[in-house]
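Q: What would this complex look like in 3D?
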Amino acid sequence: MRTVLETFRLEKSFRAAPFRPKFAALKGVSFRVEEGECFGLLGQNGAGKTTTIKIVTGLLHADGGSATLLGRPSSDCAARRELGFLPENPYFHEHLTPREGLELYGRLVGLTRAEVRARTGKLLERVGLTDAADRRLRGFSKGMRQRFGLASALLHEPPLLLLDEPLNGLDPAGRMLVKELILEQRRAGRTVVLCSHVLADVQELCDRLVVLHRGEVVSEGTIHELLESAPRSFELCAQRVPEGLRARIESAATLCRTAGDVVTARLPGNELGPFFAAEVNAQGGRLLSLVPERESLEEWFVRLTAGTPALEPVVEPLPQEVMA
Amino acid sequence: MRDRVQVIARATFLEAVRDRVLFVVLLFAVGVVLFSRVLGWLSIDDELKMVEDFSLSGMSILGLLLAMLVGAFALAKEIERRTLYSLLSRDLKRAEFVVGKYFGLVAAFWAALFAAAVVLALWLALWGGRPGESYVAAVAGLLCESLLVTAVALFLGALAAPPIAAVGTCCFVLAAHSTEALRELTSNGKSPNFAAVWRVLYHFIPNLEDVNFINTTGGQVPVQWSHLGMGAAAMALWSAVFVGGAVLLFRRREV
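A: Here is my prediction, written as structure tokens for the whole assembly.
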């Protein structure tokens, strides 16, 4: 698999004001994005996401390290021809109409006027801006700008899409449209780098992610890998549970409710659930479900970036009275 | 490269044309042209010469003001409005952006000056005047002047904050119209140290009077086309120097 975007020990410092000491926005950020994946770049405000993106897109110069786009240094303009970029809260030349704007951006990536015109109608229709195609961007709402920005990023069908908060300011229909577009790009084999605060979106769209915190990579991997930990608890649902066993389940559960002959219990830790499930089966009851409850991406992210300890699963030996 | 410069120049031209500032200045210039007739009636000398000179001077001042303000704010506006993100993240070199921006601004100013010059020519013709070659030379001089002033404004805009750049451009225009005075200071100055300073300034400040042909209107003074040609070449050369400077400054600028 080909690496389409790679940063290697990126460093960047800024001075807030003249004669003030510099603060490091990036402290050796390294990650790699492979072809065809949807990659999430996560981090709190000030974590260094936008700085990283600005270096990758040639808007900022790195103090140290390097960034490459499809094997070429990101400072090389020709490399950016293969990149579709949607900045956060995108701003465009407001005196232009979407049609003129697409022509401007299309010509800058080497498309001919005829090629741009051939693609414009279809693309504006796809992002729902056909009716506004000849209105100036000045009067556009935030959501309309976002959709126009996405159209301009997709215009030259780049193999790599870099989307900084693409779902910002969109209404539910707009969000759905953008998600569909991202998934379409993935299906077409394009690589998508998604930078977002909305963790549910990242969890829904991305295969792999990297988390930046105070200018450093604090975690990297597939969502499955990152969230793969022992379950915090199990939710057990069983029918026709013998009375003695039901009492033991009730005493071990943090939450237990009975409806008719169906018992639903939340059993803490990673052993009680499977243990009682086996007991229910052994004593003639009927196990309806046993669902592990794991940490959500949001809980994981907050824990990771806030430095709080994980909600550790209970792994101590089961109490004697439960085992009896 | 030429294509991308053209694309940026076209977008800049469109922006300037669609911006109300250009129209306001153009309307003001037309107002000056029309008002000049009143001054012509009050004049005890050649009425139409008065109309022509006053109008051309008014156009010159308005053109310079426009070049100063729009040129000085051009790059900063793109950075502040973040419109630059959508441009530089594509296959566009910063040098191409600056050069395209410059050509777009110059094209817009030239279009405005040309429109005002046509209005003035019609106005003069209405009152029986015949704008001749001296008129053409004066307008061509104004176009050359705007070429350089825009380049200086763009350069200073890349170097400093826009208000400082606008004031700096204003100082430059005043100095560049006064280089003859500097030469006199060089030869008549009492202090040899100051004479050296004046001499350096004289050689390093472009002389905008080289393309000032407003005084030749009316046909009393024959137009020296070679003089205008040399002046235009000097303006083009100086403009290239300042635009090159702006490119160098903007190349390392963080946006």
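A: To summarize the key features: Residues 2-177+212-252 of chain B form one domain. The mean pLDDT of chain B is 86.
Q: Very helpful, thank you.
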